[in-house]
Model the fold of this input.
Amino acid sequence: MRTWRAQRLLGGELRAVPAAALAAAATFVASGIIRGTYPFGALPRNTNDLGQQFVPMHAYLRDLLTGHAPGDFILNWSSGYGVPFIGDFMAYLGTSLSWMVLLFPRDRIDLAMYVIATAAIGAAAAAMTAYLRLLRPAGPVWLAALAGVSYATCGWAIDDAAYMTEWLNGLIAFPVICLLCEWIWSKRSLTALVVTPFVVALLWMSHFYTVYMATLGAVVVVLARVLSDTEGGSFGRRVEGGFRCLVGVAVGIALAAPLLLPTYWLVQTSTPSPDEVFTPLGWREFLSRLLPGSEGVGTSPGLAVGTIMLLLALSFPFNRAVARRERFVWTLFVVLTTISLQLRFPHEVWHGFDSPNGSPYRQAFVVAGMLVVLGWMSVASGVRNFLSVAIPLALVGALFTQVSDLPTITPTTRSVVPVVAGVAVLAFLLTRWRPGTLLWVRRTAAGLLIGAMLIETTLSSVAIDEARSKFMHDYQPWGAKQESIRALVESAEDWPQQRVSASQYTSVNDPMLIGGQGAEYYTSTIQRSLSEALVNLGFGYSSYGRAPIDPKNPVIDSVFSVGARVQEGPRGAFALTKRPVGPLVTLRPAKPWVSTDPGAFGVQETALGADVYTVPKVAVHVTKGATAAQRDWGIGMRPLPGADDPVEIGLTTSCKPGSGIYLRGPDFVGDVMISGDGWRQVLKPSAKRPGTYTGAPMLWVGRARPNGAADVRIRVSAPTRLPIGSIGCLDPDKLKAAVTDLQNSKPTEIEVGGHDVVARFKSGQARTMVLSVVSTPGWECSVDSKAAKPPESLSGLIAVPVGPKARKVSCSYVPRGLEAGLVLAVGALAVLCALAGILMVSSRSANQRRQH
Done:
């Protein structure tokens, strides 16, 4: 049954596939040249997560692949003082194109990311073109290639995914899974059934999040084929083909389980963001995103596939050259899928029942792909009757008129839609899509359409990028600043004897981008236990706790063995500061000392094992323009109506002369006077829900005077508060003595591997081994090679009690779900082998019956 389709695709028709890839990539490159963005001009393209997550993580991946990273694929020692890596690998790196970082020097990581994005867009165009040619081989080859380009450069790809590079794997996966299922559908061969699971596994390991959405979309497409394919044989045979596809995809997902299950558990134990309630967009604004050049990243769906493909998709229901059943089923499915983007329960299903913060239409590329499929099915059958041309033009014209005043519509949209629609009408009038039309006329019409579609795609990409850049933050590519900081970090590198911190001067993931082993770390898979432990120690945070802010505190550095740190000096010059700190592993008393000081000061002291802070009582001095009251929970402050903005308030106390004064106000919205550096903003008045979205780190504000007086000046513009024990006085002599004690408690030998630590020491007394790593789910420790078990915690750090005869402690990070994932993958492989065996036997028996 129709096996000739695959044979024809593998013949001369294949030229459309590379043509589509090159054309899509060319339009993307051309848009960058026109805009003057990196690497073609001075404008940066590292928008938001591209600059702060994807670029740093790909730099770390390159270090990992070249053997220069301190960790491995299980644990990342560079960030957060040691964090799980599998979740980040699955969410931000994947396996399909990220290996391309090896083709570029490390200081060209931004160029590598640009090439990866370009290649992904080209691959999506190629995959869609191949699928369309297999689905309907009868249409014009050049138009199939342009349909692939329209899909790969759809509004979602350019507006949402171009700066979220790994999302482009979902763009590739949708047509690839449809192609695999169509291959199984049309050929029903052993090869198709065996190859499909391995390709699906690769896709799911590339980016499970958007590939999950692509898989749901492919399920809809296969279901439409089962219900509508008039040439697919009996209904039972069509159901069998759909079932084969389902088995192939399910086995493929199971083969990826060794990475999927650990990622699932990491997501389950990650720092959550507040529950998001989906609110559908108004239908006028929603449908406006069907038009090319429209922009609304993070708020509306990028459905645009170009004017011509939109017209062709709208012609499908009215094209009598397409079988009636196909028109009804496919139109119904595409309409329902589009509506599902606006309904709460389908929204939850599309996003794996975890409604995201921002970009609620991340599945929009599936609808864009379906529109392209509809357009191709229509044109491949021949668009000849009047209604199939007139009605789409009327619908697009009505939509264009109704939405032209919306902010989603750019000037480019207002220009290209009528022009390209006019070109489409002219091409139709020249040819009427009849085989008898003169060759030169057909070529002229084709040239007009090709030129119009490629120019429209390029200009739309320019308009989208320009509109998005007006309100999204960007990061500069690798340059002299990063080079100088990396040189300083490398000059002090001494892992695992001590850590060196690049601090945060270029991105929130500088340890991965620059090097070293710092605290900075931003990811959606950051563990809740890590976030909570760091906040309790005095760290700040942003993005609901997903991005810790290093307080650059000497006690913290001593606890986490940060012996060298990059600091920015006057006029932007960077220098390296060093201080004596405790080692990575220490042996404490069997019953570690616990501080009684309140808040973060006490938590730090417990982690250090020494009393180094004084947390004195604070007196509040207010002006006539403000009120302040001390409560059980701390100090509440507010300016009075009509007062000058801001209002200054004084906090006074007394400390040991020469002590460092630190302010701990995680929810404090206002400014503080820093000795020798002027006023510094703690939290902005516009901060989203202080205490939920953002939290301020502990800050050094000055030093106690020779008489012991300590004054802290703050300014407020709105009601705010400080907690009990908001001011702490650090005694430098006590800290120095505490660090000396930690250094003297170092084990005789320490070995640090990719995801494990082994400490050897002399026996003699019961003690507690403390590892300067935050205890997150997955860590297991054993004493003298006995059975491993989860460690205890000391101020959030890994702590292991050891008896007087103990001589060795081994701690290793074991991803939860890894063992179960391996079992599931082996089981899936066994099922695949069994199915292959059954099919081989059945095929052999069938051949023998035919011979007899």
Observations:
- The chain has three domains: 4-44+85-469, 613-730, 748-813.
- The two ends are 23 Å apart (CA to CA).
- Confidence is low (pLDDT under 50) at residues 1-12.
- The longest helix spans residues 818-851.
